[in-house]
């Protein structure tokens, strides 16, 4: 989140589900300190966060998660997960984007004004000092 804020400014609102990674004190503290309104889905209402639910549903299909027992080592599972993520980001055409996420990001940055691209704001890396850790 600090990287997004640094690059694009703080959103007015952020929405997430009941996951502990989102409701943790550090995350909530950062959001409140940044003046970002927090919206949380009600328990048992996954349709309130449809984009994320759709992602995980498709990811599990691409991963063939029901058959992970076919691997003999955790390394084989990790390699399969890596290939699935690579496919999802680089090859799989996403209906809403009409392309893959990597190509979409490339096109997005091509549309940004040169003044933004030449500024000192960079989103690819953020130090732990900048993250406050």
Task: Describe the protein's architecture and organization.
It holds the Pfam family rve_3. GO terms for molecular function: nucleic acid binding. Residues 1-109 form the Integrase catalytic domain. One of its GO terms (biological process) is DNA integration. This is Integrase catalytic region. The chain is mainly alpha-helical and 133 residues long. The protein folds into 2 domains: 1-40, no CATH class; 46-120, no CATH class. 53% of the residues lie in helices and 6% in strands. The chain is built from 8 helices and 2 strands. It has helices at 2-8, 20-23, 25-33, 50-63, 74-90, 101-111, 114-117, 128-131, and strands at 13-16, 37-40. A two-stranded parallel ribbon has the order 1-2. Mean pLDDT is 79; it is low at 125-133.
Q: What is the number of domains?
A: 2
Taking pLDDT < 50 over at least 5 consecutive residues as the criterion, the unreliable ranges are 125-133
User: Taking Cα atoms only, what radius of gyration do you get, to the nearest Å?
Assistant: 18 Å
Count of separate DSSP helical elements: 8
Q: What does the average pLDDT come to?
A: 79
Main sheet: which strands, in order across? 1-2
């Amino acid at each position: 989140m600090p990287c997004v804020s640094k690059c694009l400014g703080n959103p007015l609102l952020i929405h997430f589900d009941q996951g502990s990674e989102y409701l943790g004190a550090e995350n909530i503290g950062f959001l409140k300190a940044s003046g970002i309104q927090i919206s949380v889905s009600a328990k048992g209402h996954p349709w309130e966060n449809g984009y994320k639910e759709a992602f995980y549903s498709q990811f599990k299909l691409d991963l063939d998660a029901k058959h992970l027992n076919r691997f003999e080592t955790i390394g084989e599972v990790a390699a399969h997960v890596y290939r699935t993520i690579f496919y999802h980001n680089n090859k799989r055409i996403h209906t809403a984007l009409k392309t893959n996420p990597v190509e979409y990001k490339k096109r997005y940055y091509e549309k940004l004004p040169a003044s933004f691209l030449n500024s000192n704001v960079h989103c690819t890396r953020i130090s732990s000092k900048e993250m406050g850790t």
